[in-house]
# Entry
Amino acid sequence: MAQILFLTQVMPYPLDAGPKVRQYHMLRHLAKDHQVTLVAFTRADDPPEALEHLRGICSAVHTVPMHRSLWRNIRAAAKGLLTGLPVIVTRDEAGEMTTTLRQLTGKVAFDLVHADQLSMASWGELAARMRKHHRPRTLLDEHNAVYLLVRRMAETESNHFRRAAMAREARAFARYEADMCRSFDALLTVTEEDRQHLLSLFPPGEQEQLEKKFTVVPICVDPEQVAPIVHHNGEAPTILHLGTMFWPPNVNGVLWFAQHVLPLIHDQVPEARFVVMGKNPPAEVQSLASDPRIQVTGYVDDPAPYLALADVFIVPLHAGGGMRVKILDAWLWELPIVSTPIGAEGIEVQDGSNILIANDAPAFARATLRLLTDPILNEQVRIEGRSWVQAKYAWQTAYQRVNQVYADLLGRAENHD
# Structure
């Protein structure tokens, strides 16, 4: 049984965001065989019960408050420009995290440091360096190729200043991400596409050397704990979007759907409702509710009533990376899905059976209308989706491949000692 230091940029509970789903089930898996110490940044709105819940899984849990302010953003931008580092990385520097890691590594001889997401890579490096004797092995769970996500956001940004800033950030992330891939002993990605995108950062000779560091482990869910949602017919056909609404790709996707797809749907089904559910919607999304057929809810503690009324669940993304956990969740809930190709990227799907894939506005409208007007197809996609996620994306099965990564790393550590 090894001593594991597990670092996260968010509290891995409750499961209201994709990264948390990955972190939470990874913790559950690792804690079966190892002593896991979790160190997580926290926000003011994290529920107090989350800490107690995670203490029931981990050997120990330590938290560090995340501080954000305009001054910190300005300072981070200046440091990023001077050093060439991504601004998002310099923004999260925190003396309290350094102190916490120094205290922990001084008391516990950790065998392995597991940094979750690129945002925690520098902290993982720091924690490993703090142990001058018995230096732990290091693993970085990349989730996805961050530089590509930012590059795609830049390509779809209409504001010239923001596009230039995002393009600069994408280049900074590419350099930083390459450095972290070289530094860590092992790397996880959630999709084969992300593995290939990260390897493309290196010349062919170095790709061959680094390739053996990578293991693809998809984000997984727990079908045993999530029952299908019983569908109820509402007063009007309902299209649902669920996602964090301060994430720019979600905002752009919702606006694209409302402006370019929904009018085509209303030509055929004028009474159709569009419900946008998710935390912190910006003003341009809130303004959509001026149409009485569009509802913007903000964060909802219990989404079940909205899920039960959903006739179609949409994923209208045109930028992003990794896997969209919302698709796995919708399959668990037995909701019929329409997604763009990028929205479903990295997930094994069967177009026309457990999901409908459509890229441009007319095709997306046609796919949505098919599910709104064909109850037999709607029911088929619901049932096939649930069966598919049970077979392909249950954490109890898929995360077994992490065992071999850990065995290799810990075996190397013993040989080194």
Remarks:
- The first strand starts at residue 3 and ends at 8.
- The mean pLDDT is 93.
- Residues 240 and 317 are 14 Å apart (CA to CA).
